[in-house]
Amino acid sequence: MKSKSLLPLLIAIVGLFSLPFFITNPYYIHLVETILIYTILLYGLDIVVGYVGQVSLGHAALFGIGSYTAGVLFFHFGLPIWVTLPASIVVTSIFGGILALPALKVIGPYLAMVTLAFGTITQILINEMTWLTEGPLGIKIPKPDLMGVPMSKAEFFWLVCIVLILAMIVVDRFVKSQMGRAFEALRDSPVACDCMGVSVYRYKVIAFVISAGFAGLAGCLYAYSEQYISPNTYNNELAVLFLLAVIMGGRKSRLGSILGAAIIVLLPKLLDDINLFRIVATTIAVVVAVGAAMALAKKVTTPKRVMVPLAGVIGLAVFSFWLDRISDWRLSIFGFMILLVVYYLQNGIVGFAKSFYQSIAGKTVTTRGEKADEIDDSVSFISTVKNQNTGDEILKVDSVLMQFGGLKALNNVDLSIKRGTIHGLIGPNGSGKSTMMNVLTGIYIPTAGNVLYAGESVVGKTSSDIALSGIARTFQNVQLFGEMTAIQNILVGLHHTFKSNMVEIALNLPRYKKESQEAYARAMALLKFVGLEDFANEEARNLPYGKQRSLEIARALALDPELLLLDEPAAGLTAPDIKELLRIIRKIRDSGITFILIEHHMDVVMSVCDTVSVLDFGQKIAEGKPAEVQADEKVIHAYLGT
Ligand SMILES: Nc1ncnc2c1ncn2[C@@H]1O[C@H](COP(=O)(O)OP(=O)(O)OP(=O)(O)O)[C@@H](O)[C@H]1O
């Protein structure tokens, strides 16, 4: 982190630690403490929601499991915090792993329902298992001991502050590491993620486990903070609030989590006091009005877009003065405010503030906190010298049948791909070319037949295992990780070069640092190779189409493949882009990589392919040198009809 961005953080930390000296009312200290504890939980929830893109309504239950692990261990065995804290993390992580299982099968609203059911079941179990949890009576826990003496409220507050700072550092390191990139990749394109050797299955489970670990940590601290736990606390309403906090504060933001936690803790309190509510409603109205005026003056928005939210916040301010008592309206106002934020600020308050600042200041801010290193010209885009035994058979497709119901998308197809060559696969639309790619990369398991890569069958292997064994691919419909920058896309392809584990990432140990430096240098070399070095920090979804195709090739190369499958790489490209594509393909071939190239542009096929196979209605109808195939009657017939 740069010293400039470190300074406000340091001031905030000093301010936080000195709070007990200035605020003598323990109620307010307790409120801040609750915000900090919720923030720890939200850091974990943000991994699942913001980074992996899954909906979890099971985090209140995980929070409860953390609290009850501490409570039970203290109540039954009198264990101290230095035992209950790690135990809460471990036990809750195990439950997080269990919660991940449905996430492997279902997504979206179905996952929300399953996690909600997990929450309900957990709450019922805590309630019913009186022999362990004391049931509805709850458990009393004193503040933890510090050198044999119970901690004071201020000392415990400082402990929570320290844990929060550590949690913030660890989460920040996790999400900026290869692990965080894997989480984001599987959110943006699970199929491409698997084909980059990053197992979606594995990283979804890891995300839930880590996320649950933070929930367990927060739950344990909460038990000591409240000094009393009972099953009612950990209900589904709290689960919804946690989810709202992540969305309102802002996904993928440490500051967003703090803000989200503050909102869900303070907003209900704020709505208890009519005078305080009037002040806040008026302040919000003024801030939004000034912001809207600035945005209109700079022409970054239109009157139509600001009209409704502006009318909403001004209406709320006027309404606050019209009210005599707030108690009857609390829930309605709470719901209305949430609706405004969730509907109009879809990237949360922090996300909105960032983009507002960018548009007003006319700046583009690199939000990822990652650098595009200088290009080190000594680093090659290719890392290993390939097996140069040109002419060996690298891939054998043996009588492959791929049936979808009654449709034979591939009907007993044989292929033999020679090492170091470019093998074209052509055919009219719907002839089975992409299906063949999907069979070769493990996305489809063939109904019959075999695929041998370097003499070994790949049938039944997962896509990520096949990718790691040396087969990389691009997709007919570009499958980049859209919310990630160009360099991060390549770094996902370089995931296999990282051997460092979670502890090494959390502590930023030398092996992890070295691996990161090497990967960044290699990623920059790859970007340079495809002419994208100036776009390293640009989000992939913002790149022009031609550059997206080049980026996909560079990402596939990051896997260090022996065999590269390109599915219609020239589709939608302009003539200069196609020329550049041909240059890239030839250069990659010169480095010893074998290609299978699906392409409709015949000039591309004719100019680079050594051999061409033609499919029609799932069957191979011709094979040979490009010129021979072009002159083949069956091929002409397939393309042009009688
Ligand atoms: N998952 C699937 N389920 C059912 N049918 C499928 C599936 N995948 C492909 N098919 C069918 O298999 C046939 C071959 O499709 P495929 O996409 O492999 O053709 P293609 O040669 O790549 O065509 P194009 O050049 O248009 O991409 C088509 O009839 C297609 O509808």
UniProtKB/TrEMBL annotation:
Gene Ontology terms for molecular function: ATP binding; ATP hydrolysis activity; L-isoleucine transmembrane transporter activity; L-phenylalanine transmembrane transporter activity; L-valine transmembrane transporter activity
**One biological-process term from Gene Ontology?**
L-valine import across plasma membrane
Indicate where this protein is primarily found. Answer: membrane
* Matches recorded under Gene3D superfamilies: P-loop containing nucleotide triphosphate hydrolases (3.40.50.300)
The listed locations are: Cell membrane
Name the GO cellular-component terms.
Answer: plasma membrane
Which UniProt keywords are present, listed alphabetically?
Answer: ATP-binding, Cell inner membrane, Cell membrane, Membrane, Nucleotide-binding, Transmembrane, Transmembrane helix, Transport
Taxonomic classification: Bacteria, Pseudomonadati, Pseudomonadota, Betaproteobacteria, Burkholderiales
Q: Which Pfam family name is an example for this entry? A: BCA_ABC_TP_C
Q: Which InterPro entries match?
A: AAA+_ATPase, ABC_AA/LPS_Transport, ABC_transp_permease, ABC_transporter-like_ATP-bd, BCA_ABC_TP_C, LivM-like, P-loop_NTPase
Show the stretches that span the lipid bilayer.
7-29, 35-53, 60-79, 85-103, 110-126, 156-175, 205-225, 255-271, 277-297, 306-323, 329-345
Bilayer disposition of the protein:
Multi-pass membrane protein
Could you identify this protein by its name? ABC transporter
Domain ABC transporter positions: 395-642
Organism of origin is Polynucleobacter arcticus
